[in-house]
Amino acid sequence: MADVVKRAQNALDRRDANAIESLRDVIRAEHIAALLADWRASLPWPVKDLYVALLMDQKDARLEALMADALDSPAVETRAYAISYLSSSYASFDQLLSAGGWVDPAKVDAAIVRYRAESGHISKQPPCPQCGAPVGPSDTHCKFCSLELRVTPGGDPSLHLAEGRHWQLQTGVPISKQDPELQQVATVIRMPQMAMKFKAMDGRFGDVRSLTVNLHRFEGHQRVLVTSSENPVKAESTTLYKGWTIGKRADYEVEVINAATSGVLARARFRIV
């Protein structure tokens, strides 16, 4: 048992999709507890997607929280596996495919809405900022008030909706060591220089007077805080730039928080190579 769990943990750490696929056939009920010990909702989505791929053939009540969380994955395939699992019908997966055999996002998200309505599960998607109605993962407009929703998983991953406003958080290569403005938007960045650009899409920052910016590094399943700083912004400003010199190849996450409310406005993951 220990060998199978160790191989799975190593594959998850390496984000090795091929190894995960080969392990699906050897995972058994006795492995689930050890594997779930390292799973957390705060893990990056590429890792959580692999957990779903690894465990989707099992049928165990202990997996329900993992699968329910996966309904909010940016990857439509993961959402499809999860809703098939939670609806207790593996045959339903075929009903989520298009005529060409591809996973159909509209069918997947409709199935998720039905499941949540029937089961009482609440979506983690932010509600419509205008009328407060629920928003589906692939909605481009509110179904109730028709407000255009600029923030949709599966759309531009740099866009976020928080505290009733839209924000954009981009990472990339800075113009120079002294100027953090982005020369190139990227999520895979060569050492050592990288930068972030955080923008208020609905106008000026307004009453958001101070922003806390956290930089985290992922070490296996652990997210480690590298540095944190509070950045005063002028009410009339629309954009905050920030740059770092990073000397270690790893996966990272930059997080922008409204210092006044402690609410997370946006997160973005990137890789230093």
N- to C-terminal distance: 34 Å
One letter per element, helices H and strands E, the order comes to HHHHHHHEEEEEEEEEE
Number of helical stretches of at least 4 residues:
7
Categorize the overall geometry: globular
What average pLDDT do the residues reach? 83
For the secondary structure, the number of strands is: 10
SSE arrangement:
Elements lengths: L1 H13 L2 H7 L5 H8 L8 H11 L8 H7 L5 H11 L18 H15 L39 E4 L2 E10 L7 E4 L2 E2 L3 E8 L9 E10 L2 E11 L6 E7 L4 E9 L4 E10 L1
Parallel strand pairs: 4-10
Antiparallel strand pairs: 1-2, 2-3, 2-5, 5-8, 6-7, 6-9, 9-10
Provide structural commentary.
The protein has 273 residues and is α+β, with helices and mostly antiparallel strands. Helices cover 26% and strands 27% of the residues. The chain contains seven helices and ten strands. It has helices spanning 2-14, 17-23, 29-36, 45-55, 64-70, 76-86, 105-119; strands at residues 159-162, 165-174, 182-185, 188-189, 193-200, 210-219, 222-232, 239-245, 250-258, 263-272. Strands 1, 2, 3, 5 and 8 form a five-stranded antiparallel beta sheet that branches. Strands 4-10-9-6-7 form a five-stranded mixed beta sheet, with no helix packed on it. Strand 1 (159-162) and strand 2 (165-174) form a beta hairpin. The radius of gyration is 20 Å and the shape is globular. Mean pLDDT is 83; it is low at 150-154.
